[in-house]
């Protein structure tokens, strides 16, 4: 197999040499050209049609963000951004990820050979994942094209019992969940027999057993956590809009005065604590996550009745820029989490890069952020598994877990534990919209997912389930 062709773009000749050498340590990749600014990069992509581009963020004449927009418009291909750690570089990097960049790495310190080698390993891993993701997309497209050609093969249907419960190919027709006959819904909603309580000798009751039943029109719209997962299809724009509540674009709620002694986000005069919390949503993502989080959070209404805690694999400092950017889109109050913050409804908290984030119950019955510098888990700090694991003892809360696009399997194992412990619902982004279908696939394979949905359908369904 011929090596993949790579275009290296950087205004520094020294950095072009370093990055080229790091790339060619893997025989599967070959640097076929370099460019000194974004304008040259756009021209060489058009001329040489490389398989992948590494792009410096800050360059003269045309920067990496401007070049990325033109490349994705005319010749879309995987682009990995190289970012400095200054504030402007981090902001531009977040915008690049939002604009279609596959991922980013920070530029290596030229004075540290260890740092150069570490950056090289991350870069080569991202390049391999980018090529694998592209090949999978091309294979799906080819398969879809073949399926539309020629008459369909007539085969007898298989018995429903023989189909594996989490097979992604078995996608129901649009609206199948809503149109399911009442007899089938009764089968799905059969009561779960719980073991007797050691205190009373009677069967244990669900914490939500005393809630009034949903109206008949609503009962047919929901699928309980233990049913076969709902595998949604990508919908048209009009269908998507019909699913989104009319208040999604409502403005943020007025800011109240800050409570004394409770840490607040700089520049915000507000009370961040709230007693009586009953629900919590936890989200994990990695490669492709910034774009996915934008799509998720901009479609969650300001009156959402739960806080959202988020782990996005990202280095220190970048998570603050990410939170600031997402806050401009979302009706929710989005912030980088700080130690001791009291969680409240209508807010989203992003774990700071370099710190694990857990949710802990305080002595006063509130729920707060707990940050730590414990060892990396699954190669990450923050880790989705660490966040999800912290939810296991919080049984008084109605908990919901979401895994979206990302490399690896971080979060899947603890989602399985939460699922087996009776978590209210679990969501995974489906393959067709993932930048990298790694983390969600791992969760699906563990059979712990209630809803498998394309990205644009996750927020409307999450709002429906949580509310």
UniProtKB/TrEMBL annotation:
The family this protein is said to belong to: Belongs to the CheB family.
Post-translational modification as stated in the protein's UniProt record: Phosphorylated by CheA. Phosphorylation of the N-terminal regulatory domain activates the methylesterase activity.
The protein's name: Protein-glutamate methylesterase/protein-glutamine glutaminase
The encoding gene: cheB
One GO molecular-function entry: methyltransferase activity
Compartmental location: Cytoplasm
Leader sequence residues: none
Active site: 286, 313, 410
GO biological process: chemotaxis; methylation
Domain notes: Contains a C-terminal catalytic domain, and an N-terminal region which modulates catalytic activity.
């Amino acid at each position: 197999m011929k090596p993949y062709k790579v275009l290296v773009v950087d205004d520094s000749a020294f950095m072009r040499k370093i990055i080229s050498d790091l790339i060619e340590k893997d025989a599967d990749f070959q640097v076929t050209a370099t460019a000194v600014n974004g304008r040259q990069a756009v021209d060489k992509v058009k001329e040489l049609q490389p398989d992948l581009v590494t792009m410096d963020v800050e360059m003269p004449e045309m920067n990496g963000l401007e070049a990325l927009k033109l490349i994705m418009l005319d010749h879309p291909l995987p682009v990995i951004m190289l970012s400095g750690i200054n504030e402007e570089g981090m902001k531009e990097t977040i915008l690049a990820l939002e604009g279609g960049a596959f991922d980013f790495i920070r530029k290596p310190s030229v004075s540290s050979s260890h740092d150069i080698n570490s950056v090289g390993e991350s870069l080569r891993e991202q390049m391999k994942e980018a090529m694998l993701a592209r090949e999978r997309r091309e294979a799906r497209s080819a398969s879809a094209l073949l399926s539309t050609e020629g008459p369909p093969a007539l085969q007898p249907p298989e018995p429903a019992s023989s189909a594996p419960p989490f097979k992604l190919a078995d996608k129901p027709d649009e609206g199948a969940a809503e149109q399911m006959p009442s007899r089938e819904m009764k089968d799905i909603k059969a009561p779960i027999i719980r073991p007797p309580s050691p205190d009373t000798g009677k069967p244990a009751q669900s914490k939500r057993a005393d809630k009034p039943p949903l109206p008949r029109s609503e009962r047919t719209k929901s699928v309980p956590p233990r049913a076969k997962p709902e595998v949604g299809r990508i919908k048209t724009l009009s269908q998507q809009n019909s699913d989104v509540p009319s208040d999604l674009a409502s403005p943020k709620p007025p800011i109240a005065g800050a409570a004394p002694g409770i840490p607040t986000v700089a520049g915000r005069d507000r009370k961040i604590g709230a007693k009586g919390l009953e629900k919590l949503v936890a989200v994990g993502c990695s490669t492709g996550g910034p774009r996915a989080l934008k799509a998720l959070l901009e479609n969650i209404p300001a009156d959402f009745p739960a806080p959202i805690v988020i782990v996005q694999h990202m280095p220190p400092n970048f998570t603050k820029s990410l939170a600031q950017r997402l806050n401009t889109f979302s009706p929710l109050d989005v912030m980088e989490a700080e130690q001791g913050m009291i969680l409240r409804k209508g807010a989203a908290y992003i774990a700071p890069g370099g710190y694990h984030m857990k949710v802990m119950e305080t002595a006063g019955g509130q729920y707060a952020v707990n940050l730590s510098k414990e060892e990396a888990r699954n190669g990450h700090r923050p880790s989705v598994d660490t966040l999800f694991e912290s939810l296991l003892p919080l049984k008084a809360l109605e908990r919901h877990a979401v895994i979206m696009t990302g490399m690896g399997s971080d979060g899947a194992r603890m989602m399985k534990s939460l699922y087996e412990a009776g978590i209210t619902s679990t969501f995974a982004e489906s393959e067709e919209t993932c930048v990298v279908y790694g983390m969600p696939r791992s969760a699906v394979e563990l059979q712990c997912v209630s809803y498998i949905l394309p990205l644009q359908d996750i927020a409307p369904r999450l709002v429906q389930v949580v509310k």
